[in-house]
Amino acid sequence: MTTPVLPEGGPTPAATARDADTLRVAFVGEVDHGKSTLLGRLLLDTGSVTTDRLEVPVADGGLAFLLDGLTEERADLFTLDTASAVLETGGRRYVLIDVPGHAELLVNMATGASRAEAAVIVVDCRERAAEQTRRHMRVLAMMGVTAVVCAITKMDLAGWAEAEFHTAARQVAALADEIGLTLVAAVPVSAMTGDNATAAGTRLPWYAGRPLLDTLADLTPWGDGGAPLRVEAQDVVDGRVLARVLSGELRTGDRLVAPGEDARTALAIERFGEPPQESAATGDNIGLVLSGPPCAPGTLLAPPDRRPLRGDRWRVRVLCTAEDGFAEGARCTLRRAGADLTGRIARVERHWDSARRAPAATDRGPVRFSEVAELTVLLDRPADGDDVRVCAPLGRFMLTDGAARILGLGIVDEIAGEDRR
Hints:
alpha+beta; 6-stranded antiparallel beta sheet; disordered N terminus; 421 residues; single chain; 6-stranded mixed beta sheet
């Protein structure tokens, strides 16, 4: 049986080969808890890299350096300044995202989480979940990555003690419950010896569960079976709209509308060098032939009966990544799929340290680095959008000061206000 990776309130899994074949997993954890070494062990033991890549012996920590120098991948919206690697085994393709643990690289951590469909929380069995681990877990939940596996590492340094594992696992389980994450499993591992990483550990007879890689194999990424169709027009070439399917499935014959425009019909779906397609799914880049005039770049197309929300008053949550923070009244830009949205921070509802619980009381003071803030943003003009749980590309954004300074990463909770559709 597989465990669906679903954000709370999100759509049901799409039973497609596209969804089942690839799982994007963010590996997060405190500095020195063994995250990079564990990733190196997974790559080495699955044959994804060979031993000649080891410039430093395993006994001297060489596994931790296997991801160094790998080509950095680019996120859908932001540059992902974290190392990534692809592992293919058992008919499944994994994109492993090594997220930095340092507090000052919080923006990188949040960006990595925004791409993932599941996460592995790496916790040293002796150190337990420290402050940065708590912060990582809250950011995962905020970015919609709700299903997590906990790898309790360095079991060899604890003498393979069952009690050490259960103490750490209970702590992480309590935190996951508090934060709103689904802890699928806690797995004791030793990255140095390889026990329970990709195969059962002979030194852990008391553990009856599955190794870490098998646990990940039991997860299926949440797809877009219930997500509404959202198509972003990016350019027009020779009458064809170059577009990206942000969510849902597009089929020839579908009716599509944009704000203030008449409905169009999708006459043909094309990909470069391929015959015309009957359909396109989430993430596909396509050439789209529409009835009527082509739509302008930046236009968001949707079915007439499942349009996105539209308004100029947006309730959002933002993780502050600016060292000097930001305050109520500031001009801002929401950079996201589709188009940049300009406006101002009309109200700071409350804010709190991302490693702590959200307070019940309102706090409208300046928002500081690493805090989560609930904001009301008043846009200069109404815009289309979705709750992050409905369409992640439209529900996630980068908050800037309107120029080059990044204020934080955020998600949309509610859209209201004036609608001049």
